[in-house]
Amino acid sequence: MDSQEKDLETGKMEEVNKVEEPLTVAEEPTETSEVETPADDEAPAEGRHVYSSKKEIVDRLKEIAHGDEDPDKDEIDYLKTVFYKMHIAEREAAYKTFVESGADPASFQILPDEDEEVFKAEMGIVKERRAQLFRQQEEEKEANLNRKLEIIEKIKQMVVSPEEANKTYPEFKALQQEWKEIKNVPATKVSELWRSYQLYVEQFYDMLKLNSEAREYDFKKNLEKKTHLCEAAERLADETDTISAFHQLQKLHQEYRETGPVAKELREEIWNRFKAASTVINKRHQQYYDDLRKREEDNLTRKTALCERMEALIEEPNKSFADWEKRTKEVIDIQAEWKTIGFAPQKMNVKIFERFRASCDKFFSAKTEYFRQLKDTYKANIDKKRALIEKAKALKDSTEWKKTTDRLIALQKEWKTIGVVPKKQGDQLWEEFLTTCNEFFERRNKAGAGQRSEEHANLDKKRQIIEQLKQLVNEESDDIHQTVQKLIEEYNAVGHVPFKEKDKLYDEFHAIIDEIYKKHHISVTRKRLNNFKNKLKNVAEQGANALDNERARLVRHYEQLKSEAQTYENNLGFLNASSKKGNSLIDEMNRKVQKLKDEIALVKDKIKAIDQQNN
Hints:
By secondary structure, the chain is mainly α. It is 78% helix and 0% strand. It has 19 helices and no strands.
């Protein structure tokens, strides 16, 4: 037995026959409010398709499930990992958008995903096909084993009949060819089967009494083939994909086993060459998995640290909304960091993920409970404030000034003792409560107000401003509008005047403002009217109906403007100008009323122009 057979016998081919260690495949995520997305720590292998959407992945899975090609485990695992990475990324993006919109995180619901349902259904079909394919392969391996055992038995019978060797040589070559054509057999039988086959082949050749020329030709052809196999194995050293190189090497070893012997003096040399090339690939393959295991251990260490951070964060007390928002941001940052870390060792990958997910779930469950209790507290506070508003409304029409004032002040003090409510609702409730209270206090102030010196002083100030405005009626200057506006602002800034003088002063002030406005804006109005008259000529050419339609439109517009102006004037009578906001609102409404009056006058002039045109 030569050194090649010895190597095989003593187990030196163990590295060559070693089955590739499977890569860790991500566990399918479960439905939960906060989940971690397993992230590949490496880019897809060279030549592997990069998918841009879940639909594209589902379409590919359908091709595999319903096509003729045999499902490839590596591709199926890759499709599963990429699909769920996209699936979880979409769900987290939806959650982030939901939270950023101001909604309560606890009310976020995970909606059914049609793509995921289709993906699971197609994956079930693929799994069944793979299981069926596995059974077929196992049956085929058993059949191949029996066929090869029969070939060995036939060669064995040839060996025991050396006198018939020359006659049985063609049959022997046919058996060798048949052996090569038979593919996989059970892995546990490969070495034993090959040793037995090689033993009887060698014995047949050793006792074969062929002429030297034929024997040397056979050895030469085998040497050429094994040399090509050596060269192919040596070229694998330049292959960048370590896993692919390892698989290719296994195929070369299978071909090497099935190739007949070479000249005895060359057997050791050719085998050593092939074994040396194999060693290079096997070492690279082993180093690949050593590096992978190291990265996975480092990933486990980093993920363990994140779990400890999460568990410590859960123990920190959160007493306010701000605390929860701060902690939630920290949790989201930790989850984002988790996604950047690759797989942990296979036996720990699921366990460490479950530990991390449990701490995340615990945090968000506590947050949900906090906001549920906070919501109950808000509701109770809102009910209390609404009760106070109803009490204030019951008092606002009272004429018992002293008694009702004390009761309303007591209600205001009680209001301050009630806890917080959501800002938007709180502002609305406070505005309603304050308005109700002010209605009573304004009535009280009007009823009890005397001739205060401050109000008389304000009356004098406003009269002085009115006198200054009167002096501007006939004044011509470029900045007349700015001067008038400044005096109006000064007028509005002055406080209350005696109630009985209020309406008279109001009419006097607006009368002089109207006079100034009309005098200094008449050119603009006239220009607009002239433009309208010019256009009437074109309208008149369209016929009498056109002028009537235009007049009807202007009449409707006139009535609309009068109604709008009357509404503003009515509202002005109800406004309280005791605050800056009140003054500003009154000013704005006065300007709108004046503008409406100007527009009404212009519309009246337009109607008159149409009547003149018709006449």
